[in-house]
Amino acid sequence: MSQNADQAEIAKFDEDASAWWDPAGPFAPLHAINPLRLDYIERHAGPLRGRRVLDVGCGGGILSEAMAERGAQVTGIDLAEHSLEIAGLHALETGVEVDYRAIAAESLADEAPGEWDVVTCLELLEHVPDPASIVYACAALVRPGGQVYFSTINRNARAWLFAIVGAEHLLRLLPRGTHDARSFIQPAELARWSRRGGLSIEDMTGLQYNPLTQTYALSEDISVNYLMQATRPEVR
Asked: Is 57 known to sit in a ligand binding site?
């Protein structure tokens, strides 16, 4: 199958790959929100220790390592190979065990369907040509009774103002050109794709940034950044 990937997007992430683990670098927001993402996952999934977890679009491994440190057996996949190299090197330095693979989610779904207790796909969907295909793959990869976690950016005027004008141009939290507002995804769209993939939507939660305190927090407002938790129903 042809890869569901935008080579220009991959090139952007690989260009900054050496800075993945710099907490003040271009991926600083991911370092800042990672504790919130991790706590959100464990709040809904329960303790990750001993669980098989797949991190789709793992990049440099920020979330993958954090989940492994919580005791999960983590596999991280991505198509940005320089980013994967950095992830692997950092794991060697820290002694954290993560299995990194350069493979598309759709290909892995054909190879190993239903193999994971938890599947995470955070900050990836807005960077691929066919996000619905990734959602279907994640639904296929999780075992019955397992959980899938997505995060992305809503598509509306407020999201454009905050995520692009604010974050990229005014506050410079992200490099300019990180996002294309046309690729943002409305919660209803993500929910529809998830249900078509056989998932049951359990929760949607917003993620907000306060420029005065320079801190992030989870909230009920899903108008800009949001996370979604879904479950693959048990087979009866």
From this structure: yes
* Residue 36 annotated as binding site: no
* Alpha carbon separation from 27 to 17, 54, 59, 140, 181 (Å, rounded): 10, 21, 10, 29, 19
122 marked as binding residue: yes
pTM for the full predicted model: 0.95
Residue 93 CB coordination number (10 Å):
9
Which residues does residue 208 pair with via DSSP β-bridges, in sequence order?
217
Query: How far is C-alpha 116 from the geometric centre of its chain's CA atoms?
Result: 16
**Fold of domain 7-231:** Rossmann fold (3.40.50)
Distances in Å between the Cα of 184 and the Cα atoms of 93, 100, 164 are 35, 27, 11
pLDDT digits (tens, 9 = 90+) for 151-189: 999 999 999 998 899 888 888 888 888 889 999 999 999
In angstroms, the CA 65 to CA 88 distance is: 10
Q: Confirm whether residue 43 is marked as ligand binding.
A: no
- Cβ atoms of 69 and 49 closer than 8 Å: no
Q: Is residue 140 within 8 Å of residue 168, measured between CB atoms?
A: no
- CA 17 – CA 83 distance, rounded (Å): 5
Domain ranges of the chain: 7-231
Say how many residues make up the chain.
236
